[in-house]
Amino acid sequence: MRKLIYGMNVTLDGYIAAPGDDIAWGGPPSDELFQWWLDHDLACDLALYGRKLWQTMSAYWPTGDEQPDATPAEMEFARNWRDTPKVVFSSTIENVDWNARLVTDDAVTEITRLKAQDGGSMSIGGATLAGAAMRAGLIDEYTLATYPVLVGGGTPQFTVLDSWVNLNLVETQTFPGGVVLTRYETRR
Questions:
Q1: Where do the Bacterial bifunctional deaminase-reductase C-terminal domain residues begin and end (predicted)?
Q2: What is the distance between the alpha carbons of residues 176 and 151, in angstroms, rounded to a whole number?
């Protein structure tokens, strides 16, 4: 059975985007945090995206390594992003590219099917998609890179749940700029 990991950058008050889908509140991540996320992505065999996160990522990373100011880590991230198989869940997008396939049917059914397969870890991103997986009890690990900023509203990282999810802390790390990374495993 594959492991499903939900990880996002988040504000101290729990938002992954401020009002208007503004994600500029975090600024560029430190080199150390970017490397942590790169290592995380390199360890995953499959990436699951909701529509908004897919549109954000696919607007930049296909050519991120061609940017004149790209760092070696950004170049590696772009190459890995293109090479990693992706599943995009959306009922409004008509097609996807960059080593991705589109799922327009029930996300929970497809994620359950993917988890049951052999293979390495899968990452999941996007609040709506992750919320459906959370409510279905499919997420095995949560990673939060918490930035020291309050935005007061926007897209919350966590959705309303039907029941509690008990977690075990497995990692805490501090990064430049006061970002605190915490990683939790679901207690089953």
A1: 2-181
A2: 20
Q: How far apart are the first and last CA of the chain?
A: 14
Instruction: Calculate the alpha carbon distances from 143 to 78, 109, 118, 171, 182 in Å.
Output: 21, 23, 23, 9, 6
Does residue 7 register a pLDDT over 90? Answer: yes
C-alpha atoms less than 13 angstroms from C-alpha of 77 in its C-beta half-sphere = 21
pLDDT digits (tens, 9 = 90+) for 57-78: 888 888 888 999 999 988 998 9
pLDDT at 152 exceeding the cut of 90? yes
The answer to whether the pTM exceeds 0.90 is yes
* Closest residue by Cα to residue 3 from 140, 114, 125, 134: 140
Q: What's the CA gap between 111 and 115, in Å, rounded?
A: 6
List all residues 6 or more positions away from 113 whose beta carbon is below 8 Å from its beta carbon.
none
Beta-ladder partners of 185:
141, 168
* Domains identified in the chain and CATH numbers: 4-186 (3.40.430.10)
> Contact 103/89 with Cβ under 8 angstroms?
yes
